[in-house]
Structures are given as structure tokens and as C-alpha cells.
């Protein structure tokens, strides 16, 4: 849909900040999946998704990253046998800005995948309820 | 290809734009595009407009895609109009239910224009 591939960085020292998309999972698997990236990365994604210029993205930015979060979470659970019918997703929540802390009441470790999108860092995290 | 009118039903305005763009990229000649944010809005749209194709999300507020497909036979303007479900988290059970209620196919998000073409052209009854 975005017409590009994510790559695995050799090292990723800078944590991307700026915009976070979160989708809750409930049912047989409970937790939160989040995608964190810079506003620049999110703007490029929205531009590619919608086929519009970067300066036209404007109000579509949050909705676009929310949809990406929804698709990532949906495809994750659909690929795990038994979860497709037994796990529901919340509507996406998008946080703009850096000054926040997230407490998801998961009570367990978080699995984070650090990747590069157009050479810009993006972090996909999954916090599962114990 | 002859021009068609399409109704795109999704609670995300971004996704509605993406679906429309993908249809155009798939070579489908859209002469008119109607948008609805849920099944109820879509039924209202169909009460006053005739379309050739409906693309519908499953998970939506107010009225979801399954209830919408269930109520479609009662809408005169929707008779014979193919419905293709578009879903991300739609479970297999939901997809099976949608097909049993009369949907003609489904596309999983994320999708490419080629996948849209592959699933939509056959239900339109035209050659790609």
C-alpha cells in the first residue's frame, strides 16, 4: 500500500519521537501494539498512502498513522493461528508529541522491533498482558 | 472499460480515499464515487442513488459491514450490485458470514492496486 520495504538497521541509537499510533488487543490476547516514528516519517507514509504531496498531508496525518497501526495489528493477529476469531482490536489512538508516558496495565515485557522506513527510524512495539 | 459509480463505506476518511485511489490505479473508470462512514449512512445513500459497485469495511460504528450487507436486499437500488468487503481485522468467521450474506468477495488491508483489480474486476463482470 505504501509501495516500499522496511529495512533492518545495523544500529539504531536514536529513538524516534513525534507521533505514536496505538491499537489495543482484547480477547484471547490482551495488550497494546504501537508504532512510534517521527512526524517526518509519518508524513511520508501518509503521502505515499494517499498519493498526495507531502505538503498536502496536513489533517490526514493522524488518521493515516492510525490506519497503519490498525493494519499492522490486524495482520499480526490474523497470522497467529486461533487469534483471528478470538482477538479484537480497538480503534486506533494517535498521540502527537513527545512528552508523555504510556502505562498500558499489561504487567509484562514489551517486544520492540526497530526498523527503518525510508532510512528513518520506526519502532513497532507489542506489550502483552501476562 | 465503461465508467461505473461506486459506493465506498468505511469509517476512516483516509481509508475511503485510499480505496478510491486504488480503484483508479487498478484501471477502473470511476464516473462517480459516493462515500459513507458506516452501514447506516450507506443505506441512506443507496436509497437515493444507484451504484454499480459497493466496497465495504466490516468493523464500523453505528452499523457494521455485516449488518449493512444483511439489510441490502431490502434496498431496491442495491439489487444485483456486487459488494466487496475490505477489512483488516475481519476474522475468518466474519468473512464467511459476509460471503454467506451475499458479499461477492473480500480484500484484506493492506492491499495493492493489483489486488484490488484481481478482486473487483471479476465481480463487475468485465474483462481486465
Describe this entry's structure for a reader.
Chain A is an alpha+beta fold and 130 residues long. Chain A has 3 helices and 6 strands, in the order E-E-H-H-H-E-E-E-E. In chain A, strands 1, 2, 3, 4, 5 and 6 form a 6-stranded antiparallel β-sheet that branches. In chain A, strand 5 and strand 6 (120-128) form a beta hairpin. The mean pLDDT of chain A is 87. Chain B contains 5 helices and 5 strands; from the N terminus they run βαβαβαβαβα. Chain B has a 5-stranded parallel β-sheet with strand order 2-1-3-4-5, sandwiched between helices. Helix content of chain B is 40%, strand content 21%. Chain B has 128 residues and is an alpha/beta fold. Chain B has helices at residues 13-25, 39-48, 65-71, 92-100, 113-124, and strands spanning 4-9, 30-36, 53-57, 83-87, 105-108. Chain B starts with a strand and ends with a helix. In chain B, helix 2 (39-48) packs parallel to helix 3 (65-71). Chains A and B meet through helix 1 and helix 2 of A and helix 1 of B.
Structural class given helices, strands, pairing of chain A? alpha+beta
Radius of gyration of chain B: 13 Å
Largest sheet of chain A: 6 strands, antiparallel
What is the tally of helical segments of chain A? Answer: 3
Oligomeric state of this protein: heterodimer
Order of helices and strands of chain B: EHEHEHEHEH
Strand portion of chain A: 25-35%
**Kindly state the mean pLDDT of chain A as a whole number?**
87
- Low-pLDDT runs of 5+ residues of chain A are none
In N-to-C order, the SSE pattern of chain A is EEHHHEEEE
**Amino-to-carboxy terminus distance of chain A:** 33 Å
Largest sheet of chain B: 5 strands, parallel
Percent helix of chain A, as a range, is 25-40%
Strand element count of chain B: 5
Per DSSP E runs of 2 or more residues, the count of β-strands of chain A stands at 6
Q: Structural class per helix/strand content of chain B? A: alpha/beta
Work out the strand percent of chain B: 15-25%
The global form of chain B is: globular
Q: Gap between N and C termini of chain B, in Å?
A: 8 Å
Helix content of chain B: 25-40%
Largest protein interface?
A-B, 22 and 19 residues
Amino acid at each position: 500500500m505504501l509501495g516500499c520495504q522496511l529495512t533492518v538497521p545495523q544500529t539504531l541509537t536514536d529513538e524516534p519521537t513525534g507521533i505514536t499510533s496505538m491499537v489495543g488487543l482484547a480477547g484471547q490476547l490482551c495488550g497494546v501494539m504501537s508504532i512510534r516514528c517521527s512526524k517526518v516519517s509519518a508524513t511520508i507514509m501518509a503521502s505515499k498512502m494517499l498519493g498526495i504531496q507531502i505538503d498536502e498531508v496536513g489533517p490526514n496525518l493522524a488518521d493515516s498513522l492510525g490506519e497503519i497501526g490498525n493494519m499492522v495489528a490486524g495482520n499480526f493477529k490474523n497470522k497467529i493461528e486461533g487469534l483471528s476469531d478470538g482477538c479484537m482490536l480497538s480503534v486506533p489512538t494517535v498521540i502527537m508529541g513527545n512528552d508523555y508516558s504510556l502505562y498500558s496495565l499489561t504487567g509484562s515485557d514489551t517486544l520492540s522491533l526497530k526498523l527503518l522506513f525510508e532510512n528513518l527510524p520506526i519502532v513497532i512495539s507489542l506489550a502483552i498482558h501476562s | 472499460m465503461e465508467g461505473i459509480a461506486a459506493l465506498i463505506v468505511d469509517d476512516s476518511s483516509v481509508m475511503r480515499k485510499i480505496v478510491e485511489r486504488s480503484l483508479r490505479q487498478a484501471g477502473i473508470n470511476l464516473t462517480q464515487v459516493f462515500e459513507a462512514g458506516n452501514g447506516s449512512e450507506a443505506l441512506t445513500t443507496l436509497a437515493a442513488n444507484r451504484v454499480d459497485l459497493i466496497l465495504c469495511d466490516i468493523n464500523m460504528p453505528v452499523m457494521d459491514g455485516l449488518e449493512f450487507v444483511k439489510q441490502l436486499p431490502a434496498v431496491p437500488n442495491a439489487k444485483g450490485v456486487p459488494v466487496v468487503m475490505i477489512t483488516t481485522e475481519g476474522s475468518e468467521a466474519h468473512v464467511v458470514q459476509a460471503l454467506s450474506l451475499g458479499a461477492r468477495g473480500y480484500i484484506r488491508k493492506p492491499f495493492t492496486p493489483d489486488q484490488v483489480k484481481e478482486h473487483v474486476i471479476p465481480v463487475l463482470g468485465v474483462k481486465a
